[in-house]
């Protein structure tokens, strides 16, 4: 997604595989948790976004890959690489050099250096090096977060705690680089690339569920802010500007009775050294030679509720894409991916708070993997 946006701006070294419209101002909005099915089920509350979503010229559906979790997907967005290449292979993953499971999102381990863990170049950094003006707009606390440094380093940063505030910052920054009045300058106007992050839908979905009253309100807020912003850019800059919206994953609701805690299940945890991943994509790090036995026990226990596979089977099926050698030990020896509306927790490791989460993601279902790609200024994708 972001590599195509950079290519559409004319940044060298990237391919416009998604045939995005060429522009000199490109804004990429990432609506965390807004899957294609989530939008499809609530188009009445997103009337602006639903128009390009229904249009073959302005709307497409993308596959985020696996696992469908923010740390993995945002790093794929930020680098143009698969989880197996960039190494952010889950929410909680095993760090071989520390011998323990570490978090890849809000509880990043102090002993894990973000740039050593994810050393691949970022698209934002490459765009900046090419002479493009680059801006990330997000929550203020994400300015120097480990995930930002690992996946989205490069360019300037502006922060606001509200959806409207973030769009306002982006609009002001663009206007500052493209003044209305004629001014004496040498050379062409700079190319502008803006990455704008919205996490309110994801947070609300986790807490209250997709489709809850507050979630719907958040969707309406995103829709209204995106509409005003896109219209302003279109009116002022015409075909120079392109505003794109996508997501990192979708989300499903899991009823309380389907949130399963395996902490007291010694039979399931036998020969398991560590648990990681997320509740809908559990990663089991087993004793040497025990992977197949553990896989079989979990498959017998959960049946059609899950896909239970060894790492070798998952890698052969391309779950993580190409996997570089240093990343392989971070991936669980057995992977338990939920097929139905269920989630599996190991609260002895995580605590009981995650059991309260209604909205979930991480697995391979269409609802979690498929996300929209929308062009919001009326410019169609190239054929």
From TrEMBL:
GO-annotated molecular function: hydrolase activity
InterPro entries cross-referenced by the UniProt entry: Alkaline_phosphatase_core_sf, Phosphodiest/P_Trfase
A Pfam family annotated for this UniProt entry: Phosphodiest
Organism name: Garicola koreensis
Protein name: Putative AlkP superfamily pyrophosphatase or phosphodiesterase
Superkingdom in the source lineage: Bacteria
């Amino acid at each position: 997604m972001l590599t195509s946006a950079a290519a559409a701006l004319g940044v060298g070294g990237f391919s416009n595989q998604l045939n995005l419209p060429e522009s000199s101002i490109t804004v990429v909005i990432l609506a965390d948790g807004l899957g294609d099915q989530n939008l499809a089920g609530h188009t009445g509350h997103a009337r602006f976004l639903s128009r390009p979503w229904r249009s073959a010229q302005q709307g497409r559906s993308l596959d985020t890959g696996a696992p469908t979790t923010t740390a993995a997907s945002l790093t794929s967005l930020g680098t143009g690489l698969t989880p197996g290449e960039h190494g952010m292979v889950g929410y909680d993953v095993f760090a071989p050099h520390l011998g323990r499971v570490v978090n890849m999102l809000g509880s990043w381990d102090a002993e894990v250096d973000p740039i050593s863990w994810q050393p691949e170049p970022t698209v934002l950094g490459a765009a900046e090096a090419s002479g493009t003006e680059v801006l990330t707009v997000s929550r203020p606390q994400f300015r120097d977060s480990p995930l930002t440094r690992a996946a989205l380093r490069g360019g300037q940063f502006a922060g606001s705690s509200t959806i409207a505030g973030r769009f306002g910052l982006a609009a002001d920054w663009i206007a500052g680089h493209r003044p209305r009045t004629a001014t004496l300058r040498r050379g062409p106007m700079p190319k502008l690339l803006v990455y704008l992050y919205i996490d309110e839908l994801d947070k609300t979905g986790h807490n209250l569920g997709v489709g809850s009253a507050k979630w719907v309100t958040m969707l309406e807020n995103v829709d209204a802010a995106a509409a005003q912003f896109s219209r302003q850019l279109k009116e002022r800059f015409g075909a120079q500007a392109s505003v794109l919206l996508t997501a990192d994953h979708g989300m499903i609701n899991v009823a309380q009775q389907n949130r399963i805690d395996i902490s007291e299940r010694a039979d399931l945890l036998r020969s398991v050294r560590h648990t990681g991943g997320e509740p809908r994509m559990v990663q089991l790090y087993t004793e040497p030679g025990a992977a197949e036995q553990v896989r079989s026990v979990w498959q017998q226990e959960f049946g059609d509720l899950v896909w239970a596979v060894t790492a070798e089977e998952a890698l052969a099926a391309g779950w993580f894409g190409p996997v570089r050698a240093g990343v392989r030990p971070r991936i669980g020896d057995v992977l338990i991916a939920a097929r139905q509306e269920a989630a599996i927790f190991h609260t002895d490791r995580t605590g009981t708070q995650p059991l309260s989460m209604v909205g979930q993601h991480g697995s391979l279902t269409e609802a979690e993997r498929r996300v929209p790609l929308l062009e919001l200024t009326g410019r169609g994708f190239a054929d």
